[in-house]
Amino acid sequence: MIGGLTRFRSLEMSCTGNPNQSYSFESQGVFNAPEISPMALYTRVFGPEFADPNAGPFTPDPRLMLRQSVLSAVKDDRDRLFQRVGTHDKQRLDQYFTSVRQLEQQIAILLEGPPDLQSCSKAPAPGAESLGTEVEESVSTNRLMADLLSFALACDQTRVFSMMFSDRISGLRQAGSSAQHHQLTHDEPLDPAIGYQPEATEFVFICMEAWADFVERLAAVPEGDGTLLDNCLVFGHSDISLAKIHGITGIPMMIAGAAGGALRPGVHVRGHTSPTTRVGLTIQQAMGLNTESFGTQSMEATQPVSEIVA
Amino acid sequence: MLSRAATAVGASFASVTPSGLEKYEAAATAVAEQALDPTHRDDLVQCQPASVTSSDEGCARAFVERVGRRLFRRSLTEEQASARVAIANEAANTLNDFYAGLELVLTSVLASPEFLFRVEEAEPDPSNPSTMRVTSVSMASRLSYLLWNTTPDDDLLTAAENGDLVDEAGLAEQVERLLASPKLETGIRSIFSDLYDFKQFDDGLVRKDNALFPVYTQALVEEAKEQTLRTIVAHLGADKDYRDLFTTSESFLTRRLGVAYRVPVTTANGWEPYVFSEDARREGLLSHISFNALYSHPGRSSATLRGKFVREVLLCQDIPTPPANVDFSIVEDTIGELRTARERLEQHVTNDACAGCHTLTDPIGLALESFDAIGMLRDEENGVPIDTSGELDGVTYEDAAALAQGAPLPVRFGAWMWGCGMNPGRWNPTTEGVGYDLPIELQ
User: Fold this and answer.
1) Do A84 and B121 touch (CB under 8 A)?
2) Which structural domain, as residue segments, surrounds residue B384?
3) Which of A205, B213, B360, B443 sits 20 to 30 Å CA-CA off B151?
4) Interior CA angle at B142 toward B60 and B123, to 5°?
5) What ipTM was assigned to the predicted interfaces of this complex?
């Protein structure tokens, strides 16, 4: 709904070097594969197809219109198949059809020419990349991708994005160490002097610094009277609270940006026993969706977090 | 149809996402450009256009019908062929390039759901009208993907379109031909690459710490994978029992692998057949570097991942996901370093919520602890001797070799093949999956 008007319905990114894990799902069990390489992300958004507003007069590529003919033939094939298959396969073909429509829309937007936005310019190519599970690699990938994303948002190439900093069951590790973040959360004893697991918690610190890197990059782009961040809503969270026990109560959740004025920044709210879905509901309403409730059963939320609603 | 996908990461549910299709179309375009560039086009186009700078309907139609049939695994309908000839003509005249027109045609075939999905059709069986049979044309794809892991060749398609594959003798003839073909090796390699999830090696996802494992290089990884596949192909090719793959000491090595296995390899370049000695502790596929490196972390081995693989994939059993909000109070007080995997995992087994799964996975995985995170042999971890003994389903063993000899590991391949292996995501020409179910009126 939010992504429907732009060249990319959404952009998925990951710093883990693993294309098989994502925060973005089409439906249960079907995820949208993330970009894991900053260079690949750059090529996809700012490659030859990108209409650069500073590159002189725009002439549409005739191949774009021919690609429309290709997609038309493909849709006819889909219609023929649709008549011949059962219910489950119809669902698959529906998904396929939606994807073809999205691609058609992408071509239509490309044919319109460069975005007419003051803050839009073509991103410079990203610097050298190194993909892997060492935490410093993730930190570096996060910076490179946040930078590219800020240009993509400024040019309205997409309005929806996700970034995975560490994979589920975090495989982050320090170079030269045999222990991964996840293993440390289970195996490392608490240091009684500080009250937490020092090595495991170091990864949490680095992760939070990376979140700050990401948000600051969006705040560095001027837009209107404020910044790009003022017009964004960036939601950051962990899938557990205390990793050692797979804790799912008291999960820290953060929102940066004011969503164009819909949210009040700088507020801390204790959730107490509220379901986490209240945050999801608040976000959907702040983004202009007409959503009354979110989640099911004990996780059903009908009240947004009013303390942060402007 | 079974949806469990122990062996089909990313393909457990057949679907084409928007970003997936966007990237797929770009890839199809690149393939089409390459296939029709000046150095390759004559292999694919069996006619010469009247002019390379404009349309040629006859040559375009011949291309559409021949290449379309191979990729759709059946003849195109008249509408499908005509629509594509029209694309070829429009594009050739717009771009002043006959072959650019064919590129777009080829892209339209590769991006079609008829290519991306494998659709099986059924029909009432005339000899027993109350039951259904797979149509002759659908059977061609079923055979060629199972045995060759690719589309049917021209002979098979012709037999299929003549109706030969719903006839027992005609079917047997084609099966014999496919089995006798050198392409059978491709099919065997594909089944076992999927079974062991070797795609993770190809995708560069099996990373190890350089400082801890300097022997581990991309070249070693590729040879380790190849070693296992060669072992399987040679074993099955010699008509030996599948189950003996888990105990055989016969394999193939390169000199580079010899360094990691710490055995002498005389051949300087390339492969040689190799039989591990009795005391080498290298018996069966579960002692291979490929398996042990894949089911490990970047810095250390993982008894849990290895045990989970054996349970889920080889034995076709379910392992539940880890529970939330575990009461770890028993182990909270642990002071002192846990030095071996057994010490670390025993902490889990003391807790009921964890023990449910870890008692399934760990006894198998702990027997393999003599193989480190890249599958090299070791006797100690952090200075403590490794205990590889255990019990599985009532059978006790001292180490991995005894586990493979005594435990019921290998006998379940049949169950895997039909229970886990024949999942719908497995049999498809792309990474996106395949659909199988019947129209309601035929069910």
Assistant:
1) yes
2) 195-415
3) B443
4) 90
5) 0.88
